Amino acid sequence: MDLNELPGSELILPGLEDLYEGRNNTIGSLLISLA
Length: 35
What we know:
Blueprint: H1 9-20, H2 27-34
Helix pairs in contact: 1-2
């Protein structure tokens, strides 16, 4: 299963990119940590 197929992926994928780039104070990364 691809992440792009999941509902809400437009919120999750930018959050993952933010975490990779060290920005852990964004809404997207907050959603990742809650998931």
